[in-house]
C-alpha cells in the first residue's frame, strides 16, 4: 500500500507503489509437495514470501536502459531473506514533490519507508530532525575511503555519517577543443587564464561568448557560487556550519570575478543573470560559446548531430581555480538513507549496503547513466568501453564540494540567492555579501 498519498494540505507529492515482482520460491520443492496441485503450490509460495522480512524503499525514479524498480527486483531475486517493496516517487526534475513526499512520511515516525534516497542538500535537515539513522557503526571510517571525499562530507552531519554515498554529479568545465588549440593549445587551469583566452577568441571573431554560466536567482546560482568561492580558498559557511564566511575576502573576490565577466572582461553576456542550465547550454551547443560551466547532462547533447553544432569539438575538464587555489565542483546527486524509526534495521542496512556496492553502482552507471560515488569504478574496462565520457570524469568528481551543510539549508539558500543576485546586478559586491553574512548568521546561529 502506498503511504505517499496526497495529503490534506494539498501537496502534490504523489508517488505510487510499484508492486515488486516476487520470484519463484519453489525451486527444489519436494515431489510430494508438487503433487498437491496448484492450490498447495500457491499456498507454499505465500508462506515462503511471508517468511521474508519485508521493507519499503522510497526513491525518486531514475531510468535509462532499465528502471530503478528493475534494480529492486534484482535485489529481491538475489536472496531469500528480505523482500523490498519499491515506493516510486516523481523523478528528480520534480524535486520539490519528492522532498515533500519524504518529509510527510518521515515525520510520521512510523518506520516507513525503511530506506530512502535523498538529494544531497536534504541530508543535514533530515538528520537534524532525527529522521535519518546514524550509520557510523555499520560503515566505519576505513570503509568510507572507498568513496569520493566530497560525497562523504555531504553525507556527514555533526560528525556522524547519516547517509551513504550512492551516485554523484557535479559542475564541470566544458570547452571547445578547436578554439583552445587555436588560442593557446592548453586548457586554462586558472580563472584569469580562462578570461584571457576567452577574450582573445572573442576579439578574433571566433566566438560570440567567451564564458557561459548560470546567474539566475535560483539554486543553480548557489552551485556556481560554491565552486568559484571554494576555488579561491573560501567558503559560504564555516566548517561547523554555524557562522557565515560569505562576507570574507575570498568570497568577495570570487563573486567580483563573476561580475567582471559581464562588465569588465565582457566574456559573458548580460543575459547570464537570467539564465539557469538550459538557456546557458543552448548557445554553447549552437557553437556560440568557448567555455561553459554546466552539469554532465550536457555532454550527450553536445555530441548529438540533431541538437548540436559542435559535435566532436567539445571536451570537459575540472573547473578553473584562482592562483594558489584548487579546482572545486559543486556536488550533486542522490544519496541513501535509513529511517531512524525503522523496525527492521538489519534488513534495511543489508539492502543499503547492496545498493551502494561496487556491483550495483556499476550497474547504475551502465544502465541508468548515474555516475558512481566510488572512484575505483571509473577504472572498470566495461564502463570505459560503454560510458567513455563518464569514465573520464573521475578527476572532476574528486574535487566535488558540497553546498553549505546545515539543517537550515533552504533558508540559507534563499538568502544567498537574493544577496548574490543583487551583487551581480549592482556591482556592490562587498556590501551585498557582508549583508548576506549578517543574514545567514541569524539563520544558522
TrEMBL record:
Belongs to the bacterial solute-binding protein 1 family. It comes from Rhizobium oryziradicis. This is Sugar ABC transporter. Keywords: Periplasm, Signal, Transport. Transmembrane segments: none annotated. It comes from the Bacteria. GO terms for cellular component: periplasmic space. Its main location: periplasm. Pfam families: SBP_bac_1 (PF01547). It is found in: Periplasm. InterPro entries: Bact_solute-bd_prot1, SBP, TAT_signal.
Amino acid at each position: 500500500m502506498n503511504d505517499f498519498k496526497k495529503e490534506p494540505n494539498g501537496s502534490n507529492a504523489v508517488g505510487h507503489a510499484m508492486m515488486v515482482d516476487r520470484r519463484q520460491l519453489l525451486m527444489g520443492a519436494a515431489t510430494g509437495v508438487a503433487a498437491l496441485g496448484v492450490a498447495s503450490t500457491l499456498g507454499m509460495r505465500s508462506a515462503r514470501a511471508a517468511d521474508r522480512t519485508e521493507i519499503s524503499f522510497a526513491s525518486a525514479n531514475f531510468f535509462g536502459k532499465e528502471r530503478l524498480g528493475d534494480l529492486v527486483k534484482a535485489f529481491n531475486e538475489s536472496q531469500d531473506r528480505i523482500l523490498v517493496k519499491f515506493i516510486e516517487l516523481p523523478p528528480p526534475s520534480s524535486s520539490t514533490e519528492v522532498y515533500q513526499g519524504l518529509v510527510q512520511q518521515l515525520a510520521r515516525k512510523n518506520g516507513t519507508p525503511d530506506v530512502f534516497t535523498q538529494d544531497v542538500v536534504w541530508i543535514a535537515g533530515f538528520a537534524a530532525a532525527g529522521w535519518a539513522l546514524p550509520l557510523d557503526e555499520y560503515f566505519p571510517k576505513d570503509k568510507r575511503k572507498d568513496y569520493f571525499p566530497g560525497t562523504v562530507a555531504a553525507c556527514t552531519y555533526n560528525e556522524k555519517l547519516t547517509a551513504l554515498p550512492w551516485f554523484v554529479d557535479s559542475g564541470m568545465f566544458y570547452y571547445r577543443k578547436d578554439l583552445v588549440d587555436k588560442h593557446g593549445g592548453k586548457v586554462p587551469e586558472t580563472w584569469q587564464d580562462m578570461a584571457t583566452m576567452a577574450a582573445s577568441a572573442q576579439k578574433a571573431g571566433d566566438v560570440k561568448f567567451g564564458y557561459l554560466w548560470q546567474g539566475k536567482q535560483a539554486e543553480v546560482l548557489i552551485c556556481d557560487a560554491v565552486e568559484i568561492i571554494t576555488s579561491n580558498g573560501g567558503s559560504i559557511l564555516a566548517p561547523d556550519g554555524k557562522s557565515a564566511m560569505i562576507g570574507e575576502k575570498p568570497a568577495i573576490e570570487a563573486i567580483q570575478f563573476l561580475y567582471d565577466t559581464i562588465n569588465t572582461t565582457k566574456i559573458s553576456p548580460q543575459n547570464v543573470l537570467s539564465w539557469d542550465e538550459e538557456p546557458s547550454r543552448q548557445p554553447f551547443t549552437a557553437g556560440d560559446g568557448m567555455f561553459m560551466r554546466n552539469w554532465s547532462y550536457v555532454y550527450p547533447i553536445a555530441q548529438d548531430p540533431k541538437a548540436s553544432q559542435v559535435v566532436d569539438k567539445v571536451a570537459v575538464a575540472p573547473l578553473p581555480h584562482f592562483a594558489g587555489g584548487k579546482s572545486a565542483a559543486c556536488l550533486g546527486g542522490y544519496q541513501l538513507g535509513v529511517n531512524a524509526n525503522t523496525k527492521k534495521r538489519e534488513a534495511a542496512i543489508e539492502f543499503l549496503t547492496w545498493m551502494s556496492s561496487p556491483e550495483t553502482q556499476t550497474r547504475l552507471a551502465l544502465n541508468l547513466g548515474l555516475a558512481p560515488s566510488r572512484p575505483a569504478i571509473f577504472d572498470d574496462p566495461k564502463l570505459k568501453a560503454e560510458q567513455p565520457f563518464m569514465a573520464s570524469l573521475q578527476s572532476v568528481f574528486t574535487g566535488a564540494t558540497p553546498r553549505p551543510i546545515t539543517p537550515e539549508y533552504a533558508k540559507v539558500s534563499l538568502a544567498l540567492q537574493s544577496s548574490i543576485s543583487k551583487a551581480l546586478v549592482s556591482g556592490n559586491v562587498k556590501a551585498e555579501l557582508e549583508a548576506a553574512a549578517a543574514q545567514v548568521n541569524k539563520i544558522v546561529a
